[in-house]
Design a protein that fits this description.
Pfam families: Rce1-like. With 355 residues, this protein is mainly alpha-helical. It has helices spanning 27-32, 40-65, 80-105, 119-143, 157-182, 184-201, 206-225, 234-254, 258-274, 297-300, 312-326, 334-337, and strands spanning 33-34, 37-38, 147-152, 289-293, 342-343, 349-350.
């Protein structure tokens, strides 16, 4: 009698029978979820609803604690405390809601614009280029007779005090405007349009088309919302929209917003505090120099400030050249952030190209 010394064959699964239940996703799930998770339209709707609810609650609490008063001082400048609340509260809301949505979608929060490689070097470079590009613009207006420097308003320690105060404030301004319009919403709309374009056009360039389509949409929105600023002009609105596209170019090349945040910070700080000109029609208190525009608003910018002058157009070309030649595209580019996410063992969806 022989003994079988071979290992038994492993059990093989039986083929499904006609009576075996086959689990199929429900039609309702298909409405809300696609191949990369929660559909982009629903994601954006949830984000906007949460942000609107946050602003409503913050406004309600603020009015209960401190009833509304005049927003400007007798000289029609905006005080620091009002601008701080007007920027810091929405920024906090955008940050919290973006974090919530990153948990809902199981994506690292860095994919929404504040991740990528070389964050600090990009931010510092943006800070430097912001003031470097603004200064010749102001000098051109001055030399052409469209801007007059009247006198200096601050002396001694007040220069450092208010300079640092406004620099911190305009960092919040830059971060809010960049993160709100080119952060979560830009990423999510691009994600949704990329899937739509892949399905509709069968193209390998769906990510490129999706990114720049969403860039045009949000840049138009960015320009239009500046219309709520006092003293804004059509040229100023156009400039804001073009600047938004310019910052989208930064996002496209680097995969992050840090260069744009730095540039936005010192550009606004240089206008409002250092050179004492209007920024989108807004003048702030405690600025270093007193100035006033002279001549036709189309050339001087008028009450809008330098951004309302057509002289800014060659400056924008200069800034685009700076972006192209100092921020070459790397593997941290935005297209890599749109590659299909991979779910890790801890349940977090990891996007490609993230640092």
């Amino acid at each position: 009698m022989q003994t079988n010394t071979q290992d038994p064959l492993p059990d093989t699964p039986l083929p499904p029978t006609p009576h075996s239940p086959i689990e199929r996703p429900s039609p309702l799930r298909h409405v809300f979820f696609g191949t990369d998770g929660l559909r982009a339209g629903w994601s954006m709707l949830i984000f906007i609803a949460l942000f609107a609810a946050f602003l409503f609650l913050a406004n309600f609490i603020t009015h209960k604690i401190h009833p509304p008063t005049h927003h400007t001082s007798p000289d029609h400048t905006i005080p620091f405390y009002f601008m701080f609340l007007n920027e810091a509260v929405p920024l906090f809301g955008v940050g919290i809601i973006t974090w919530i949505m990153s948990k809902v979608e199981r994506r690292p929060i860095g994919v929404y614009g504040l991740g990528g490689a070389s964050k600090l070097p990009h931010f510092v470079a943006g800070l430097a280029w912001g003031i470097i590009c603004l200064t010749p613009f102001i000098l051109i207006l001055w030399k052409a007779g469209f801007l007059v420097f009247d006198n200096r308003l601050l002396f001694g320690s007040d220069i450092l005090r208010y300079g640092a105060q406004w620099l911190a404030l305009f960092f919040a301004v830059g971060l809010l405007e960049e993160y709100f319009t080119r952060g979560y919403l830009q990423y999510t709309l691009t994600r949704g349009l990329a899937g739509l374009f892949r399905s509709a056009f069968k193209t390998l360039h769906s990510n490129v088309l999706a990114f720049w389509t969403s860039a045009v949409i949000f840049s138009t929105f960015f320009g239009l919302i500046h219309g709520s600023n006092p003293g804004e002009s059509p040229i100023g609105l156009l400039t804001a929209g073009i600047a938004s596209m310019m910052f989208c170019l930064v996002l496209w090349r680097t995969g992050s917003l840090w260069w744009a945040v730095g540039f936005h910070t010192t550009w606004d700080w240089g206008q409002s505090f250092l050179y004492g000109v209007a920024d989108s029609g807004i003048m702030v208190q405690h600025h270093l120099l007193a100035t006033h525009p002279v001549g036709k608003p189309l050339l001087s910018g008028g009450t809008t400030g330098p951004e309302g002058s057509v002289v800014i157009l060659p400056i924008i070309i200069l800034i685009i050249a700076v972006i192209v030649f100092t921020l070459p595209r790397t593997n941290a580019g935005y297209t890599r952030l749109l590659e299909p996410p991979v779910e890790s063992q801890d349940g977090v969806i990891r996007g490609a190209g993230l640092e």
